[in-house]
Design a protein that fits this description.
Helices cover 36% and strands 20% of the residues. It is of the alpha/beta class and 425 residues long. The strands form two sheets. It has an eight-stranded mixed sheet, with helices on both faces. Strands 1, 2, 3, 4 and 5 form a five-stranded antiparallel sheet that branches. A hairpin with a 2-residue loop joins strand 6 and strand 7. Helix 7 crosses helix 8.
Length: 425
């Protein structure tokens, strides 16, 4: 599975370009230097016995090549500003062509490298933080429970009195404020959405969810993350926007999993309207069960795990091929997410609702949008022909469809922009 492979390759990154601070730093630098020179056997001589038992030279070779394909060519590495450096660990920041990746090296009592992993989400280096169309943007940092959320406020070029503002909520996984992530998605969907809104007189605030992108300074770790953390953040951010006198109306726009977050947050925020973009119409457990039907060899074990999680029980008995879906570290989040039923939540809203689905969405079929509409008949349903999950025009063919995920230059589907703006006006 691609997701599992990527998580594994994240364990082996970086070069320590500065002067080594201690023995551990020297060993880490030498290890990576040997990998760069393709001396994988010599590199393994610097690792612990447990490490060598799991990884061989051929594996290191494959991983290092995969890393440079995934993150771009290596450039440099340096300590983080908030470096944690003790006898057992060392944090470094590796810079590749397309990403900046914070890494933690672990050492055993003998000073051998026992593991190294990514502590924070990689940051995309592509120049996507500023609007290509030169709409005014302001970087904001807003305090929420346990940390700071970083985001971007975009406004029209000639804002009028009482300009409305939209809170754009990203989808699942490490998707950043622009709609991109380290798994190959570089579509700039949310940046383009913000520009489309600004071009039609609507300001927007898009943000990195907690533990994603620049919103990484939190007291809680991924192991303690639950679904309501994201809802609470959205409520605080929406309240902040509502309290800005320059904005007259607040709209909530949630994409994919962000649709669930937006719908539930709207129960507290009572915005002027809420928009579900390619949002699920079923409980996450049901979605996973249906997706796994296409992989018969995994269904039995996966169903057993899902049933335990539905009961609020965690398990460490997760097969390697299912670890990307059910790793113990993310099970608290899954347990909390399995309690969310979008069809029930959307019935609680008494405000204008726009439900959008794309006919070529490979991840969330239009049947989900139809289920949300059936649950709240007063909502407006917009099914857009040939729109996929990145909100771009795309064919049904899977290979051609997925190519749009890595193309930031493709515009948003025009029917989406027209339908969205007409609804919000």
């Amino acid at each position: 599975m691609r997701y599992l492979f990527i998580l594994f390759t994240l364990l082996f990154l970086s070069i320590y370009s500065g002067k080594a601070q201690n023995t551990n730093g020297n060993k880490a630098a030498k290890f990576i230097s040997l990998m760069v020179d393709s001396n994988y056997k010599e590199a393994l001589d610097l690792t612990s016995a447990d490490f060598k038992a799991k990884v061989n030279p051929a594996t290191l070779s494959k991983i290092w090549k995969g890393i440079n394909q995934q993150f771009g060519a290596f450039e440099q590495v340096e300590p983080l500003d908030s470096i944690t450096n003790n006898n057992n660990s060392l944090i470094l920041q590796a810079t590749f062509k397309d990403y900046i990746v914070p890494l933690t090296f672990h050492f055993n009592t003998s000073g051998d490298i026992s593991a190294f992993l990514m502590q924070q989400q990689p940051k995309i280096r592509a120049n996507t933080n500023r609007s290509p169309a030169n709409f005014p943007e302001e970087a904001l940092k807003i305090k929420v429970n346990g940390g700071i959320i970083s985001g971007t406020l975009m406004t029209p070029k000639n804002p009028q009195a009482g300009t409305p503002v939209a809170l754009i909520i990203a989808g699942s996984g490490p998707t950043d404020r622009n709609g991109n992530n380290l798994y190959g998605v570089k579509a700039n969907s949310y940046l383009l959405l913000a520009e489309a809104l600004a071009d039609n007189g609507i300001a927007s605030f898009r943000y990195d969810k907690r533990l994603i992108g620049e919103s990484v300074n939190f007291q809680t770790s991924q192991n303690n993350l639950v679904f309501n953390d994201f809802v609470d953040d959205a409520v605080i951010l929406g309240t902040f926007l509502k309290n800005q006198k320059k904005f007259q109306k607040l709209f909530i726009i949630g994409h994919s999993e962000g649709s669930n977050i937006g719908i539930i947050a709207s129960e507290q925020l009572n915005p002027d309207a809420v928009v579900s973009l390619c949002g699920p119409g079923e409980n996450l457990a049901t979605v996973l069960e249906n997706q796994l039907l296409t992989q018969p060899s995994l269904v039995k074990e996966a169903t057993s795990i899902i049933n335990l999680l539905k009961q609020g029980k965690m398990t460490n008995n997760v097969p390697a091929e299912l670890n990307s879906l059910f790793a113990p570290a993310i099970q608290p989040f899954l347990i909390s997410s399995f309690k969310i039923n979008p069809e029930e939540e959307i019935t609680k809203l008494k405000i204008p609702i726009l439900i959008v689905g794309g006919t070529t969405d490979l991840q969330v079929p239009t049947s989900h949008a139809e289920k949300l509409k059936a649950a709240n008949p007063k909502a407006t349903l917009l099914l857009i022909k040939n729109m996929n999950h990145t909100l771009k025009t795309a064919p049904a063919n899977k290979e051609a469809n997925l190519k749009t995920y890595s193309n930031p230059n493709l515009p948003l589907n025009s029917d989406l922009v027209i339908g969205l703006v007409n609804f919000l006006r």
